[in-house]
Amino acid sequence: MELIIYLAIGAIAGFTAGLFGVGGGLIIVPILFVVFNQMGYDPSVIMHMALGTSLATIMVTSISSVMAHHRRGAVLWSVFKNLAPGLVLGSFIGAGIAGLMSGSNLQLVIGFFALWVSYRMLSTAHVQVDPTKKLPSAALQTLAGSGIGLASAIFGIGGGSLTVPYLNKNGVTIQKAVATSAACGLPIAVAGALGFMYFGAKTQIPIENAIGYVHIYAFLGISVMSFITAKLGAKVAHALSPAMLKKCFALLLLSVGLYFVYQGIF
Question: If you average pLDDT over residues 28-53, what whole number do you get?
């Protein structure tokens, strides 16, 4: 039964990853939080486990998603090259910061962050991308990558919630922003997952079937199914209009944000 739950989570998360370029973390984290809670894990580490496991699965979903987007020629590899060093450094540090925070504080931070991004996406859904705008210098892109990586590890996501708006604001169309964001999810996930394993291993609380804060069975079950469904999500992303894609993305974030704010307060 437990494996079936993880496979179902993977199917939904993979589709979301391909559709929005968000790595699926915004779906995986709240569902894993509920599942781990029902399984009776120590409440003080449940949120950390959800984040660490989410980042580990994003390693797989991002590969599947980016392959599908790459075949359509939508990934801006030159931008990825500039962002990647910052993403790696930022996400490892972010995992360490998350390890120092309490579960309820993590929930509130993630919840308010999701609500803010949702508002930003909804308010700019019909704003046309300015083709005259250019991305900043390579150094500034690397710096931006550090901030995106740091926040993404704390939120257990592939960075799409920050990478997509960042690229979109700098003249990149939503489809190419989603595709490039999917590629950026890989260095974030690898560094973040390793960070949660490392810092989780230092905790005094024993966690069954886990390496640090990464649950092995959940990782395997979610990864297998998400690898398959991410390709379908990427196909749908290229069929939708930019405005519709933004609205769907924003509504997803709104739901997740409200859920975590409620959990963090009550």
Answer: 91
Rounded to two decimals, the pTM is 0.85
Rounded distance between C-alpha atoms, residue 212 and residue 169, angstroms: 37
What is the distance between the alpha carbons of residues 49 and 69, in angstroms, rounded to a whole number?
30
Alpha-carbon dihedral angle through residues 16, 22, 27, 32, given to the nearest 10 degrees: 130
Joined tokens for residue 115: 């609500």
Cα–Cα–Cα angle for 250, 256, 260, nearest 5°? 140
- Please report, for the chain, how many H helices and E strands are present, in that order: 10, 2
> What type of residue is 225?
M
pLDDT of 195 over the 80 cut? yes
49-71 pLDDT, tens digit each = 999 999 999 888 788 888 888 98
User: How many whole angstroms separate alpha carbon 172 and alpha carbon 134?
Assistant: 8
Position 125 confidence tier, pLDDT thresholds 50, 70, 90:
low
User: Helices in 101-208 by DSSP H: which ranges?
Assistant: 103-123, 138-155, 160-169, 174-201
pLDDT band of residue 88 (cuts 50, 70, 90) is very high
The strand ranges marked E within the chain are 210-211, 214-215
Find out whether 92 and 191 touch, Cβ atoms under 8 Å: yes
Q: Which of 36, 15, 39, 16 is nearest to 26 (CA)?
A: 16
d(CA 46, CA 180): 31
CB 260 within 8 A of CB 110: yes
Q: What is the SS3 assignment for 111?
A: helix
